[in-house]
Design brief:
Keywords: Membrane, Transmembrane, Transmembrane helix. The protein is mainly α. The protein has 3 helices and no strands. The chain is elongated. The mean pLDDT is about 85.
Length: about 70
């Protein structure tokens, strides 16, 4: 496989798709911080920062943190 294609695939699957998933997900939290919070960022921004810093590992942490409904 072409090294350039491999690099683009890693970039796309490791960073861009997780960022899009968190940006569009309903379960990522709000963009604004909760009332009374002293942090200027909301939960969704925090998840985006984690994915930017940790890459696929940050996305797996987000994926694991979502609540699952057990049947």
């Amino acid at each position: 496989m072409d090294p350039k294609l491999t690099a683009w695939l890693i970039l796309g699957f490791g960073y861009l798709l997780p960022l899009a998933h968190i940006t569009l997900s309903r379960n990522a939290g709000s963009w604004r911080p909760p009332p009374g919070s002293r942090c200027p960022m909301g939960p969704r921004v925090g998840w985006l920062v984690m994915v930017l810093l940790l890459g696929p590992l940050g996305w797996l942490l987000f994926w694991r943190s979502r609540r699952r409904v057990r049947a």
